[in-house]
C-alpha cells in the first residue's frame, strides 16, 4: 500500500489457493479479472471525456467554497439540522456524518444532524417534540424533485416551520438540492424564496455522496470535505492508471465477488466493518450494490454486519450455515487505543486476559479472530485494512465501492445506473393513495 493510501485489500483468502475447495479457482478468478479490462478502459474513457461526472468529482475543488459557505450559514443559525431525502439522497450523508457523531451529537461546535429518510408519522411527531423549530434548519434533497416520501417530509416540515416562525422567515430555514430542471420541489422552493442548489443531472442518486448531496451535510457537521475528495482521488487514480486489472483494487474486488457468484453460486456479500464509524458506510454500500446490480435475474445480496456486535448475532450462521456468502471484513488499526480495563478492578483470575488491556486491543483481537475463523472454516474472506477512520479513508472506501460496483455491473452485463423495478412500486403507491379518503 503506497504511503497514505486509504486502505489495503487482501483477497488471498477468497481463492482456492488460500482456503481450499470452497474458494474461487485461480482460473475463474483470472478469467473474471481479465474481463474487467473492458470496464477499466470504459472508466478511463469516461473520465477523459467527462461522460461520467462522478469520476471528475475527486479532483474538483471549485465547488467547495460554496458548499462550505452554505454549511457555515446553517452552522451559525441552527442547533439542529434535519436532512430530508431518501435512498441515495440520504445514505451518503449518513455514512459521512457517522465519522463525527457516535450517537451523542457531533464533535466540536456543530449542530446535531438528523437524517430522516422515512415517512413514519411517529418519527416526525417525535422530531417536532424534540427540536426547537425556531433553531432548526432543513436540507431537502431530491435529485428528481418529485419523490413522494421527500415531498411529504418537505411539505410537512415547511408547514411546521411556518407555524413556528411565520411565513416571512420560513424560507431562511431551508436549503433545497435538486436537479436544474422543472420539478415540483424546485417550483415550490423557488416560490418560497428558498436557496436551491443544483444536483448534477449526470450523477445518479446513489453515486452522489461525493457531491454536495453528501458534502453539504458533512460540512455542516464540521468534517473536512476536501479531505474526503482527496481520499477518493487516490483510489480513482490507482484504477485509472492501472496498466493491468490486478493493479486496480476495485477491479480485483469485482472479479472475486462476481467470480465467486459464477463459479460457486455465492450470492450473498457480507460487509463487516470493525468500526462503529463505518456502520453507516455499510448501509450506504448495501444500497449502492443492491440497486445498481439487482437486475435481469442477476446480482448478489449485500448484507451489512458490524463487528463485534454481530459476532453475537450473525457469526454462527456465517461460520456454520450455508456456503452461500463471501465476507469483507474491514479491520481498523485500533490496538493500543481507548481506555484501559483497570487491573485493580479486573483482579479476578477469569479476567486476567483483559486486565490492563485497552478497549482497542480487544476490538482489534476480535476482528482478527473473526476473520481468521472465517478463513479456517473455508469461507471466502476479503480483508480491508485501514490504519485510521477519517475523511480521506471514507472518501477512498466510497470511491472503491463506486468503482467496484460499476466494474461488477460490467461483468454481469447490467446497467449500474438505473433502477427500473423500483418505479413499479411508486406507481402502485399513487394508486393506493388515490383510493384512500382525504382527511383535510
Ligand atoms: O440511488 C437512487 O437513484 C435512488 O435511491 C434515489 O436516490 C432515491 O430513490 C431518491 O430519489 P430522489 O433523489 O430523486 O428523490
Q: Could you write a compact summary of the structure shown?
A:
It is built from 16 helices and 10 strands. The chain is α/β, with parallel strands linked by helices and 440 residues long.
Tally of distinct domains? 2
- Helix-strand makeup class: alpha/beta
Identify the strand order in the major beta sheet: 1-10-9-7-8
The second-level CATH architecture of the largest domain is: 3-Layer(aba) Sandwich
Q: What kind of assembly state do the chains in view correspond to?
A: single chain
Q: Report the sheet-strand fraction.
A: 5-15%
Low-confidence stretches: none
Name the bound molecules.
5-phosphoarabinonic acid
Helical stretch tally:
16
* Main sheet: strands, sense, barrel: 5 strands, mixed
Termini gap? 61 Å
The coarse overall form would be: globular
The strand count comes to 10
Describe this structure in words.
There is one protein chain. The chain has 440 residues and is an alpha/beta fold. The chain has 2 domains: 8-45 and 227-412, Glucose-6-phosphate isomerase like protein, domain 1 (Rossmann fold, 3-Layer(aba) Sandwich); 57-225, 3-Layer(aba) Sandwich (Rossmann fold). Helices cover 47% and strands 12% of the residues. It contains 16 helices and 10 strands. A 5-stranded mixed beta sheet has the order 1-10-9-7-8, sandwiched between helices. It has a 5-stranded parallel beta sheet with strand order 3-2-4-5-6, sandwiched between helices. It is globular, with a radius of gyration of 23 Å. 5-phosphoarabinonic acid (PA5) binds at residues 86-89, 142-144, 147, 150, 204-206, 291, 419.
